[in-house]
C-alpha cells in the first residue's frame, strides 16, 4: 500500500517548550496507526500540525502527494483529512442530524445566491445531505439514528463521541484522525467503538485512520502499526507486541509491570 500521509522531521516549539521533536512517520492508504504516549507527550499537537491548526517550526507534512504544511484547516479538510477532538466540539443547540449535515460543508455547492435564485436545486442538495447524514447515523453502533432530531447537547457522552465521528465522516475523508475516541466510554461502549472502526474500514477499505488512545484494548484491536511518543519524540514504532515490549515504552507509559502482563 502506498503512503497517503507522510510526516517528515516535524518539530514544534512554543517559545522554549519543544512540543514535537523531529517526528517522522507515514500512514499507508487504507492503513491504521495507533499513537500512544503519556499525557502531555505531544500527541494532540501532532494532530494540530497535520490539520493546519499549527504551522510547524520545521519539517513538512505531505498528504496524497501534495505538501500541506501549515495550510489553513479548511483546505486540509477539502483535501480529505477529518478529525475529532479530545473535548466535544459539537453544536449543542442543534440537532444530531444538523450536526452531521454541517460536516458536509466542504462538499456542498449551494451558497446564499444559489438558495435565493435556484431554490429547487438547493432543496435537492439538502435532501441528498439529509439522506447521507441518516446513512452515517445508521452506520455506527447505538441508536443515534433514532435520536437524530434530539439536541446534540443532551446526548450521553458515548453518543456524543459517536456523533463527532459521524460528523467527521460527513466530509468524505481519505484520512480520519480520532483523538482519544473512547474517552468517557465503559467497556461495552468501547467494544462497540472498536466494532464501528472495523465496520468503517470494511465499508471503505481505502480509508486511513490515525487514533490517539490510552485504552490499550482499543490499540490492541489494531495492532499492525503503533507509535509511542514521549516528551515530543518518537521513542518506538512497530506492531503492538514490539512496541509494548520496548523498555523505553514501558518506562515512559505502560509501566514496568506491562512486560509481565
Word description of this protein:
It is a single chain. This protein is an alpha/beta fold and 261 residues long. It has a single domain (3-260), classed as P-loop containing nucleotide triphosphate hydrolases (Rossmann fold), CATH 3.40.50.300. 38% of the residues lie in helices and 23% in strands. It is built from 10 helices and 10 strands. The chain has helices at residues 43-50, 73-79, 96-102, 112-117, 119-139, 157-169, 187-203, 216-221, 240-245, 247-254; strands at 3-14, 17-28, 32-36, 58-63, 66-67, 81-83, 175-179, 208-212, 226-230, 233-238. It has a 6-stranded mixed β-sheet, sandwiched between helices. A 4-stranded antiparallel β-sheet has the order 2-1-4-5, covered by helices on one side. Helix 7 (187-203) links the parallel strand 7 (175-179) and strand 8 (208-212). Helix 3 crosses helix 5 (119-139) and helix 3 packs parallel to helix 6. The longest helix has 21 residues, at 119-139. The protein starts with a strand and ends in a 7-residue tail after the last helix. The model is unreliable at 256-261 (pLDDT under 50).
Query: Might you state the CATH topology name?
Result: Rossmann fold
In round numbers, the mean pLDDT is 90
Instruction: Domain count, please report it.
Output: 1
H-E string: EEEHEEHEHHHHEHEHEEHH
Number of helices: 10
Measured between the Cα atoms of the first and last residue, the distance is 33 Å
The share of residues in helices is 25-40%
- Count of strand segments: 10
CATH-scheme architecture? 3-Layer(aba) Sandwich
Percent strand: 15-25%
Regions with little confidence, pLDDT below 50 for 5+ residues = 256-261
